[in-house]
From TrEMBL:
Stored NCBIfam families: asnASE_II
CDD domains tied to this protein: L-asparaginase_II
Active-site residues, record numbering mapped to chain: T17, T97
GO biological process annotation, one example: asparagine metabolic process
Record-given protein name: L-asparaginase
């Protein structure tokens, strides 16, 4: 779509339900994510041509439950290539919603630009009645050309809301209002087709971080172990045996550790594996509580999947406990 009078936006497509097709217009589950191309998506929303000159690139076409390190590496490089292009005003990335928060948090930490970068997905396939994808992509492009979106880090636009990728998480399996920033709230909203911003995160992102594209290469293995009643150390020992350099423990409450899992985590930490305590509750901070857990790092407000991303990047810089702790306190 060319209209050189309008700002130029790159739409990079990775797949997801926004590119999904179902057998019937009433089917909202059981569809195939990643079956429409970026060209199909853009062609099906002619109103985009009134907002921006659109250029597109297909990065992958997968359900985001199948996200890999290789696609992360490719996506970060391609995103930075467009951000470095003086003719581009902003970048929109279409993405499945299942791992959108992990990809987005990674981009928020490694991309270097103050241009808007917007992740967008949908909860209903493109073929569904009341599909949410077309309006979501229109609103994402509107935010991408909005001067106020500059310098706010990587953003997610869905369901008329603008969220920061550090804090947003998927909270519902199928509802269109699934993305919430539970602890700190949305950064803004889109009403009547206009983006309105009300706040921004104080945490460093994009141009302010110590991470770069180089850190996305050869990411170390980090496993998440989910806490539960009657737990033991079997899966923790298995993670270490599989070569994990880090473990995120999705603990109970304020990162509480089952006493029978503690011995496995302690022995992992003694072998140099960095262990982060996060929480399976879905909200709140994980802070110091039990004096026995001094060899572990607190995830603060990062949920287990976000803590995993930060721990992977931290491990590219250090294996020192205190230095990794500083990184978790910073971001
Ligand atoms: N709504 C969605 O996009 C879910 C889909 N499984 C995905 O993440 O690709």
């Amino acid at each position: 779509m060319t209209n050189p009078k309008l700002p130029k936006v790159a739409i990079l497509a990775t797949g997801g339900t926004i590119a999904g097709k179902a057998a019937s217009s009433t089917a909202t589950t059981g569809y195939v994510p990643g079956s429409a191309t970026v060209a199909d998506i853009v062609d099906s929303v002619p109103a985009l041509a009134e907002i921006a000159e659109i250029v597109t690139e297909q990065v992958s076409n997968i359900g985001s439950e199948d996200m890999t390190d290789d696609i992360w590496e490719k996506l970060t490089e391609i995103s930075q290539k467009y951000l470095d292009d003086d003719s581009i005003a902003g970048v929109v990335i279409t993405h499945g919603t299942d791992t959108l928060e992990e990809t987005g948090f990674l981009l928020n930490l490694v991309l270097s630009s103050d241009k808007p970068v917007i992740l967008v997905g949908s909860m209903r396939p493109a073929t569904a009645i009341s599909a949410d994808g077309p309006m979501n992509i229109i609103e994402a492009v509107k935010v991408a050309v909005c001067p106020e979106a500059k310098g706010k880090g990587v953003l997610a636009v869905m369901n008329d809301e603008i969220h920061g990728l550090r804090d947003v998480t998927k909270t519902n399996t199928t509802n269109v209002d699934t993305f919430q920033s539970r602890l700190f709230g949305a950064l803004g909203m889109i009403t009547g087709g206009t983006p309105y911003f009300f706040k921004q995160s104080v945490k460093p992102h994009t141009t302010q971080t110590e991470f770069s594209l180089q850190d996305v290469k050869d990411l170390p293995r980090v496993d998440i172990i989910y806490a539960h009643a009657n737990q033991d150390s079997t899966l923790i020992d298995a993670a270490v045996a599989a070569g994990a350099k880090g473990i995120v423990y999705a603990g109970m409450g304020n990162g509480s550790i089952h006493k029978n899992a503690f011995s496995g985590l302690e022995s992992a930490a003694n072998k140099g594996v960095l262990v982060v305590r996060s929480s399976r509750t879905g909200s709140g901070l994980v802070v110091d509580s039990n004096s026995e857990w001094q060899n572990f790092i607190n995830a603060g407000s990062l949920n287990p999947q976000k803590a995993r991303v930060l721990l992977q990047l931290a491990l590219k810089k250090t294996s020192d406990l205190e230095e990794a702790r500083r990184i978790f306190e910073t971001y």
